[in-house]
From TrEMBL:
<dbReference type="Pfam" id="PF00704">
    <property type="entry name" value="Glyco_hydro_18"/>
</dbReference>
<comment type="similarity">
    <text>Belongs to the glycosyl hydrolase 18 family. Chitinase class V subfamily.</text>
</comment>
<dbReference type="GO" id="GO:0005975">
    <property type="term" value="P:carbohydrate metabolic process"/>
</dbReference>
<dbReference type="InterPro" id="IPR029070">
    <property type="entry name" value="Chitinase_insertion_sf"/>
</dbReference>
<dbReference type="InterPro" id="IPR001223">
    <property type="entry name" value="Glyco_hydro18_cat"/>
</dbReference>
<dbReference type="GO" id="GO:0005576">
    <property type="term" value="C:extracellular region"/>
</dbReference>
<keyword id="KW-0326">Glycosidase</keyword>
<dbReference type="InterPro" id="IPR050314">
    <property type="entry name" value="Glycosyl_Hydrlase_18"/>
</dbReference>
<dbReference type="GO" id="GO:0004568">
    <property type="term" value="F:chitinase activity"/>
</dbReference>
<dbReference type="InterPro" id="IPR001579">
    <property type="entry name" value="Glyco_hydro_18_chit_AS"/>
</dbReference>
<feature type="signal peptide">
    <location>
        <begin position="1"/>
        <end position="24"/>
    </location>
</feature>
<dbReference type="InterPro" id="IPR011583">
    <property type="entry name" value="Chitinase_II/V-like_cat"/>
</dbReference>
<keyword id="KW-0325">Glycoprotein</keyword>
<dbReference type="GO" id="GO:0008061">
    <property type="term" value="F:chitin binding"/>
</dbReference>
<dbReference type="InterPro" id="IPR017853">
    <property type="entry name" value="GH"/>
</dbReference>
<keyword id="KW-0732">Signal</keyword>
<keyword id="KW-0378">Hydrolase</keyword>
Length: 386
């Protein structure tokens, strides 16, 4: 005991001296930030996308998520797996097995078009949570995944959020037990979450994610830093603004709110879009950010993949604008208006994530890049700062 107290005081003294010294120096520049060995460069792979996982260049990724499976409310919230899901799951895993460099695989549950009230019902009782948890572990082990990811879009009430905390705790405990029983590494547990810690703009009630449970039980949380503006509003806007001096709808605000809530940067993986959003302009001569529009650009449904945007710009001789305020691009031709990210803005966003000491970044989604241009730029920026 005595000697450990002595060691302790010595360390405190060292710490004091170090802090004292460094306070006299200028703050380190972002590029001095050490890249954590276990950091995350991830992407989701949408099932049914006709994009074989064997064609993914694993130099640019550490983790690939299978998107998505969902719980079946009619079968006590066990995962619903159709015949075609079985094929997709097997192909996903076999395309990523024995790759160099290797990637880890996570099975993601939920997604943007999933049934939010099914997740709310599942999370609300011990019995349904347990059935769901057991099913997710069984499926992950059966197919050979390294982890599980929850993408519940979105918890609607403060009660949903407190049930989510209980779900994370029970899930994590079940994963520890599974690891012991199976004598295998514990499955990872992660979650895709709203861009900010508190959900204000959608639904009826303000509610905040359980930061304590996220810190304690998740390997990381992945804020979805996109979908900030879209054709649901009749004004053009930026899909994934890094900064917005006029509102809280920005990545800087969102990530900041997560850190202020008590989730450490080392448990945050920032979202990046490999797609843009489109509008049909009301007047082709009024084409800035905030211009009046009359819905999504014709034939797009409101979104466009990065590779299709490059094609569109080329074929239509679109005007391309880099907006330094939001750190984003937009392009327009005739009445079509598109907000998106390109090499320069992706680089700046990854530098931002690194400068805050985040755990990494992820893309939605891996099949939307053009010859790995954005995946490569993000990966190189994260690893080497160029
Ligand atoms: C969504 O889940 C709720 C709650 O389990 C269920 O009552 C409802 O039928 C589901 N809706 C759809 C479209 O499956
Ligand atoms: C919001 O409240 C209205 C009226 O009470 C209700 O009809 C609607 O379903 C609620 N929406 C959500 C997302 O809870
Ligand atoms: C932004 O969020 C802060 C709290 O984090 C709040 O005080 C402020 O009113 C918000 N600003 C806007 C424009 O909504
Ligand atoms: C957007 O504009 C269209 C066409 O003018 C109109 O029908 C629609 O109601 C508007 N939507 C919103 C959210 O204002």
């Amino acid at each position: 005991m005595a000697s450990s107290i002595a060691v302790h005081s010595f360390i405190l003294l060292l710490l004091f001296l170090t802090m004292h010294q460094s306070s006299a120096q200028s703050t380190p520049s972002p590029s001095n930030f050490p890249t954590p060995f276990t950091s995350v460069r991830a992407a989701y792979w949408p099932s049914g996308s006709d994009f074989p996982t064997s064609s993914i260049d694993t130099n640019y990724f550490t983790h690939i998520y299978y998107a998505f499976l969902n719980p079946d409310p009619a079968d006590s919230f066990k995962l619903s797996i159709t015949q075609s899901d079985q094929t997709e799951l097997r192909n996903f895993i076999s395309g990523l097995r024995n790759r160099h460099p290797p990637v880890k695989t996570l099975l993601s549950l939920g997604g943007g078009s999933s049934n939010s009230s099914a997740f709310a019902a599942m999370a609300s009782t011990p019995h349904s949570r347990s059935a769901f948890i057991e099913s997710t572990i069984q499926v992950a082990r059966q197919y050979g995944f390294d982890g599980l990811d929850l993408d519940w879009e979105f918890p609607d009430t403060p009660r949903d959020m407190s049930n989510l905390a209980i779900l994370f705790k029970e899930w994590y405990q079940a994963l520890l037990l599974d690891s012991k029983v199976q004598r295998k590494p514990r499955l990872l547990l992660t979650a895709a979450v709203y861009y900010a810690n508190t959900i204000v703009l959608i639904g009826n009630e303000t509610r905040s994610y359980p930061a304590g449970a996220i810190r304690q039980y998740l390997d990381w949380a992945s804020p979805m830093n996109f979908d900030y503006h879209g054709a649901w509003s009749n004004f053009t806007g930026v899909n994934s603004a890094l900064f917005d001096p006029k509102s809280n709808i920005s990545t800087r605000y969102g990530i900041g709110s997560w850190i202020r809530s008590g989730v450490p940067p080392s448990k945050l993986v920032m979202g990046l879009p490999l797609y843009g959003r489109t509008w049909e302009l009301e007047d082709p001569n009024v084409h800035g950010i905030g211009a009046r529009a009359v819905g999504p650009a014709t034939g797009t449904g409101g979104t466009m993949d990065y590779n299709k945007i490059l094609e569109f710009n080329e074929e239509n001789g679109a005007t391309i604008v880099y907006d330094g305020i939001s750190v984003s691009y937009y392009s327009y031709s005739g009445t079509t208006w598109i907000t998106y990210d390109d090499v320069r803005s992706i680089k700046r966003k990854v530098q931002f994530a690194r400068s805050l000491g985040l755990h990494g970044y992820f893309f939605w989604a891996v099949n939307k890049d053009k010859d790995w241009a954005l995946s490569r730029k993000a990966s190189n920026t994260w690893r080497g700062g160029y």
